[in-house]
Known about the structure:
Strand content of chain A: 15-25%
Structural class of chain A: alpha/beta
Oligomer: homodimer
Largest interface: A-B, 29 and 29 residues
Largest sheet of chain A: 7 strands, mixed
Number of strands of chain A: 17
Radius of gyration of chain A: 22 Å
Helix content of chain A: 25-40%
Shape of chain A: globular
Distance between the termini of chain A: 23 Å
Order of helices and strands of chain A: HEHEEHEEEEEHHEHEHEEHEEHEHHEHE
Amino acid sequence: MGSTRVLGLGKAFHSHSSLCNGTRVFRRNPTVVLRAFASTLSPPSQAVVYEQHGPPDQVTRIIDLPPVELKEKDVCVKMRAAPINPSDINRIEGVYPVRPPVPAIGGYEGVGEIQAVGSAVKDFSLGDWVIPSPPSFGTWQTYIVKEESVWHKINKNVPMEYAATVTVNPLTALRMLEDFVQLNPGDAIVQNGATSIVGQCIIQLARIRGIHSINIIRDRVGSEEVKEKLKKLGADAVYTESQLEVKNVKGLLGDLPEPALGFNCVGGNPASFVLKFLRQGGTMVTYGGMAKKPVTVSTSSFIFKDLALRGFWLQKWMSSERARECRVMIDYLLGLVCDGKFKYELELVPFHDFSVALDKALGKLGSQPKQVLKF
Amino acid sequence: MGSTRVLGLGKAFHSHSSLCNGTRVFRRNPTVVLRAFASTLSPPSQAVVYEQHGPPDQVTRIIDLPPVELKEKDVCVKMRAAPINPSDINRIEGVYPVRPPVPAIGGYEGVGEIQAVGSAVKDFSLGDWVIPSPPSFGTWQTYIVKEESVWHKINKNVPMEYAATVTVNPLTALRMLEDFVQLNPGDAIVQNGATSIVGQCIIQLARIRGIHSINIIRDRVGSEEVKEKLKKLGADAVYTESQLEVKNVKGLLGDLPEPALGFNCVGGNPASFVLKFLRQGGTMVTYGGMAKKPVTVSTSSFIFKDLALRGFWLQKWMSSERARECRVMIDYLLGLVCDGKFKYELELVPFHDFSVALDKALGKLGSQPKQVLKF
């Protein structure tokens, strides 16, 4: 994925004096030796790092990193925003199957602005907004230097919090709607965890395609308000789990068709509800396990109902030479955002409040919108 | 599925005087009224019937049925053999999703000999061996009258117990090896319930294709002998469930490749063992649930291991205009039997000992070979 900042924690460089800038003309720089070899240097950066795996609120800290040299095909990006996704937390915990070696900088997606470019870079101008696509590790830092091929230029009119979060959750929703079952307008899908960002995206992307969505949410205080919110996004039906404790779940469908495709990001009983709604020959795709409980399926669901159970992992999907395809999808999704057809709940938090954002992302402060660091 | 004997339990006809024969010339027949309308009549038949669903040993009985008239395209088949399959038991219990309305005659597959043919039947000769293909309800009777299209003529050199049982279990094994994952010589499959007939068929059909099989059996007295038996059929590896209670199941594979395809006919823990053996992106097909326990799957198996879980139901597969394809497969499988390349354990039991055979099939007498009624 091109060259990247090498973490030298022992040699952390605290001077902010050598900032790169748009004209590639350096200000007076006391680091003469460095300058002799480097036509362009990044500014020093601040980053959330962890030197070992463990509870994210214990093993992460913000440190200063020294400037790095831009090679001729590198660009230096001043990060604008980057979210705290559940997978980021799992990487820090050391429980995610693909993760950078420690010590590592946190984060996986985000958006930034071109701050400087190497001498051979032609396709980017200073001030361009870019996102790493496919995403790559280490977006929780103020400046990133990586090869130009890593970056995808986007429309600057997009709100930065959407640009920062478009790659992981919305792309997951889009691919899951496209890759498993051929859906036609008038068909239906069913999902649990419908209030998650992916869930909100599925509702809206389904609606744009004329596909009905049946949504399952947790029982909680204020569930009626949640139902109304999801219906405003385009949900056809929203049920709390307790509403589905009935003998014939399909009796609730009314005029809606039996769904051919279901999405599970919870596990346990809420996964069984998805299976119950599915039509003969339907498919359930698991992409998360928020309840930390397995999926349990009866023998007859497989044999007589002919259900298929699959999984989806965006990181694996993206790793297979699909860079161009990803970028087309990102442009499509950000276009929907600009047109006001695609939205979800986020909270922008200043980078220096990282520990508060992390606590919220860890669920320590109850149900919270996705936290997006603003640099 | 053509015309069929109509069950008139209230009018059971006990005379054996009007036997059809090969020359279509009738012996003296006292039933003058019947003879006036019927150019050919079947013999009266004896059949295992049930008038209501329930425990098979309580609701079934053998009764006499009156002769029926052969229409011009009908054939009368003197049944030779028919097995008691688990699905037959489930149909009698009323728990199988597709079953004949009661009162009904038991049985679903079998083999018989042409006893008489209707006036327009060209493709069968008296004495031909035939099996109903696709199979159809009501094979547990001594004479069956159905339209010629129902019957498939087979090689008379096949042992009758194989002809009687080829349609349900061996065809299931063959289709499951063909329909889910593209296997190449050198690949491997894994299965539980390996001592079942389907299990034995899978071992042999895999071996013929150069595919390795990893087999899981129950812990039981004599499991070493069972292992040897399965290895003689071609099994590459056989493990009892307790042998798989290890941290790294794949460490047992040795030189065998990780299997791409698994078969589950048990559920519960033995299904989890199949999942553990599967390679990244592998598929498990469920076709039975002998343990009456569901299949439990971790979230990470779906997301990170990319496992797919499917089901297979032969009866549904066959119902889709696949008569010709079925018959080609039956001929292939019976050819393997004749060549000595395909065998499995069966026990032939005289029809008049039906209640003993049923008790064995119900598991009342411990582990027993599949019971095949001999008429």
